Amino acid sequence: xxxxxxxxxxxxxxxxxxxxxxxxxxxxxxxxxxxxxxxxxxxxxxxxxxxxxxxxxxxxxxxxxxxxxxxxxxxxxxxxxxxxxxxxxxxxxxxxxxxxxxxxxxxxxxxxxxxxxxxxxxxxxxxxxxxxxxxxxxxxxxxxxxxxxxxxxxxxxxxxxxxxxxxxxxxxxxxxxxxxxxxxxxxxxxxxxxxxxxxxxxxxxxxxxxxxxxxxxxxxxxxxxxxxxxxxxxxxxxxxxxxxxxxxxxxxxxxxxxxxxxxxxxxxxxxxxxxxxxxxxxxxxxxxxxxxxxxxxxxxxxxxxxxxxxxxxxxxxxxxxx
Length: 322
Prior knowledge:
The protein folds into 2 domains: 33-147 and 306-321, Immunoglobulin-like, CATH 2.60.40.10; 148-302, no CATH class. The chain contains 3 helices and 20 strands. The radius of gyration is 26 Å and the shape is elongated. By secondary structure, the chain is mostly beta strands. The chain has helices spanning 2-26, 225-229, 316-321, and strands at 33-36, 45-47, 51-60, 72-77, 83-89, 95-97, 100-103, 117-126, 135-158, 175-176, 185-196, 202-213, 218-220, 241-247, 250-253, 257-258, 260-270, 273-280, 284-285, 291-314.
């Protein structure tokens, strides 16, 4: 009986460890939605007047979901003098509108550690080219614009009396990371400072949060993101917004306020990234012993990824002569 109990505990511990490791992997990396062409089946040359297909693979390699309520926008761009868009071949989850497609795509999860993947095809037709030319070069461009989140969950030490020499249960340290949190915007540093409170016996905790665009795309506003892919200027400034900071019993949540204030919003651009300061409004008594607490930070932004394919359009005469 003791052996059975021992083996049960051993298996339970292994499952807990495996789950923890998997969960940590979800929030690692610097990718969000990624666009790729398949390794084969991509057209390199076509003859004027021909119809052809460009396939595309869409993958959400990050830790955040892109939902139906705020879907990603995929925009197809062509040179209208040489190509015509015909139609999309898409999945039931997608919605089309002209040369645009709206789509949801879930990120990494314990059941799908690689993130969700889907495919579509654009059906196109080459126009006749100048009869004096044997061929021309052109390009097909896909842009994906989407809202995304970066989420950091770490243990931190809060010490209301950092200059005291008494023995403490923990010591505050700057949180640093170069691996990302499973999103194209990475929180690279969180530095803690104690400020004087409104009362002489109180202190206020302040976090200096530093982030950077660690992906290969362009930052957008998290609400105006569709306009960027449609070639229009949004009314809101692109940038990174802090939407949640929480530790111990204190928090700031976007739209609800709270005990913490973050300024500036969006995060200020600096030489090697972006930064903002999130400060506890209410003081903590200096007499409070140092304690360890989970720290949660969430950033919101829009993002754009692009990919292009170059191909040649041959004249019908040149094709016959060859």
